[in-house]
Amino acid sequence: MILLNRIYASGGNEVLIQTLDINVGDDIYRLTNGWDDIRAKLEDGSEVVFTASGCDIALPARNADGTQDLKFALGNIDGVVSQAIRKSLDNLQNATLTYRCYLNTDLSAPAKPPFTLDIKSGYWTATEVQITAGYMNILDTAWPRHRYTLPEYPGLRYMS
Fold first, then answer.
1. Residue 57 located in a structural domain
2. Are 16 and 101 in contact (CB under 8 A)?
3. Any idea what the CATH number is for the domain that residue 52 is in?
4. How far is CA 19 from the centre of its chain?
5. Rounded to an integer, what distance in angstroms lies between the CA atom of residue 86 and that of residue 128?
6. Of 21, 79, 94, 100, which residue is most buried, by most CB within 10 angstroms?
7. How far, in Å, are 4, 112, 116 from residue 63 at the CA level?
8. What one-character DSSP code corresponds to residue 54?
9. Residue 136, helix vs strand vs coil
């Protein structure tokens, strides 16, 4: 973590490698930004290959507005991932995204803890796919979750 703090503060010879795990149903797509595929270990110790792709990742802002979305764009040249995400969004299937950050000098584990987000929306053109993923939106969530309403509890009508 000290090395990661130094990189954020002043740079160095190391390079941050951003990766995405896109889970759509039973399919998993592992992508990294760049020209070369990388072989890295996940937090559970399993070794996987992240496929090089033309992707751009905008990390969630660290603020208190209640919506922290990760946005990413993929080159839609072969259309494989975009078709899977399109099916997921059209059918409202469960699709998640896991973001991991590695250092090029140490691919034995992520440089910081990964985080998983739900894919919420997206659009695609002939050349690119733009996807938004985020945590649960706390501001638009009712509390308490269980509501006492008249259809479920008709006796509420007679309470004063």
1. yes
2. yes
3. 2.30.110
4. 10
5. 12
6. 100
7. 21, 19, 18
8. -
9. coil
Among the listed ranges 18-22, 88-92, 93-97, which one has the minimum average pLDDT value? 88-92
What is the spatial distance between Cα 57 and Cα 75, in angstroms, rounded to a whole number?
12
pLDDT at 136: 67
Cβ 104 vs Cβ 14: under 8 Å: yes
Q: Is residue 7, in this structure, part of any structural domain at all?
A: no
Residue span of the structural domain in which 108 resides? 15-158
Task: Evaluate if residue 128 carries a pLDDT over 80.
Answer: no
Tokens 């007679």 correspond to 158
Nearest alpha carbon to residue 138 among 60, 67, 61: 67
Instruction: Give the mean model confidence (pLDDT) for residues 5-31.
Output: 80
Query: Is 55 within 8 Å of 131 (Cβ atoms)?
Result: no
Over the range 83-118, which residues count as b (16 or more CB within 10 Å of their CB) and which as e?
ebbbebbeeeeebebbbbbbbeeebeebbeeebebe
Domain count, the chain: 1
User: In the beta sheet, which residues pair with residue 117?
Assistant: 97
Secondary structure of residue 12 in the 3-state scheme: coil
Is 67 a residue whose pLDDT tops 90? no
| Contact indicator for 57, 70 with CB cutoff of 8 Å | yes
Beta bridge partners of 73: 56, 130
